[in-house]
Each structure stands twice: as structure tokens, then as C-alpha cells.
């Protein structure tokens, strides 16, 4: 069975038309299914883990097909195929399935120059107010405060000095990652942080003699916290306070967005609303969602692999509106997005490489729904595609 046959067979499966024999063929082929004809690039993550994640989302898509929402259901089979094809496209963008016409006319461009994806870039501000442009700085020692600060290929590392040194609570450093950037940070306690585009993290240069390890986040970050039982780790953001001892989790708290989302991968955390006594303890695969200035915390079960896909080099969009997708695109490609008569009821899904040029992402999105785009320099206009109404 080739890949085209597999996708066609999966379409029958989502429509409930597969025989028992065909279902068995589908399961057997899935075990042999490869994500790419080329040798797998480990920078995209572990191949089998990604396959399993996609397969789980395919099964979820199948379950959704009985929801009764005909506007959404009519494209669900394609979303499932896009989940497969999207990962097939990682790095290579080999198009294997074209149920709708893919034409560059749906991406009207004022310039032929590609808009490239983001890269490692950030600005580090020290306690004395001095700034270091990390993307322009060579590897090696870059500062010496309460901790020795070094740069190593897209990562800043803090090494604690003598723990008997008196800690000044005002020795706060700030790492700012602009739109079109990402960066990694290792704090003085060994905690590892991945910062997404358009994010800012403020933190002590050292945690010596502090009762708590308190940092402040505006934006999105993934944390792997070093365990210190007697020194809790606290992340403050607008809308939530997250306290942990040692665990891995993701926080999305962009100032321009109304929701703060905390997703737990391992261990446990306690999420607090700053303006109330409301707290929730999370367990792995749970996400706390807080509405800023309103409270009303909700806890739901999620697939954490989808949430941290940005850290692993790809986007996963799962039954989302174009208005939910475009802020992610806007931050990573550092473009300004506006809308003209877009239908907020259409939903989109698929997996896309963060290493692709913007035009490639837009071209694939046009295959998923009634949408087209116009690029004017770094301004991106989102419009309905009247041809498919």
C-alpha cells in the first residue's frame, strides 16, 4: 500500500465505510508508515513519539465526526490526513495530497522575497541596566554577577558561585525574546527554560539565601525545574501564580491575550489566581485556563505534546479558527496581521514545520479552508476565498 492508498483508506475509515479487513490493513500499514522518505532529522523530535501523537489525534478526529456539526464534520477527514501529510512535509514539504486546488493566486504577494522563520535571538538585561544582544555575542563568558553567565549556541547559562555569598534581592536579570525569535536559558539552580517568540522572563541572577525561587513571565515558556524541596519555584504572570518543587510544565501568558494557560507534563503544580483564593493542583496531562481579571479557573485534560510542539520545532493546529492560529504565525514570523471579512466558523488542523518559510505555511493553510492571504512587505492580510464559498 502506498501513501496515497493509505490516506484514501483512512478517509473511508472516518466515514465508517471500512470493512474489518480494511481496518486491519490500516493498522498494519501504520506500523510501517514513515514520516519522511529521507533519514529522520532528530531535531524534529523522536519519530515514533510524533507518530503516536499524530495517531492519537487522528483517533480524536474520528470521534469528533459524530458531533453533528456538519460545517466542521465535512472537513474532518481532511484534517486527519493533514495531520499525517503535515508531518510528511516537515523539512521537505513534499505535497502528496491535493483535494483542493493549491495555487499561488491564493497568496497575493507584493514581494517575491520569502519571509523566513524565526531563529535564536534575544536580549539580556543585567541588574545594572546594561544590555547584551545575544545573537551578536560570541560564545563564552558574557558577564559576572552573583553568578557566572555564559553563552553557548543559542543558550544562556548561569552558574552559581559560593552559596554563602549574601544574595541581593534586587539583582534581577531579564531575558527578552522578540517576535521572530526563541532562546534557551539555564538558571543558577539548574532549572532549564525554553522561551518562545515575543516573551520576557525576569529572574534573580542567583537564588542563594532566598526562601523561594521567584521569576516573572510575560509570554510563553517551557520549564524543567530543578527540585529543591526547601526552596519552592514560583512563576508569576499576569493572571496566575504557579508554584512547584520540581517538574516540567508550559505556561502561555501573553499580555495581549485574555487567557493564561498552564500545562503540566510531569510532577505536580499548584496554580493560583492572584486576585482570589482560588487554587487548583494539576496532574500530568492537565491544563489550567484562567481568564485575566475575571478568574474562573478551568482545568481540562490535554495532549501535552501538542502544547509544547513549538519547543520541538513544529506547529500543531487542532480544530482552531484562523483567528486563533494567526497570533502564533504573527509572533514566529514577525509580521503584522489584519483581517478582511474572515469567517470565524471555519476550523483548521495540521502539523507544520517551524523551519518553513511563511509563504509555505500560508499555501498549506489555503488547502484547508475558505481562506486566502495577501502579503505586503511584513503586513499579512487574511481574507475569505470567495471562489470556494
UniProtKB/TrEMBL annotation:
The chain crosses the membrane at residues 76-96. The keyword DNA-binding does not apply. Pfam families: FecR, FecR_C. Residues 174-269 form the FecR protein domain. This is FecR family protein. Residues 314-382 form the Protein FecR C-terminal domain. InterPro entries: FecR (IPR006860), FecR_C (IPR032508), Ferrdict_sens_TM (IPR012373).
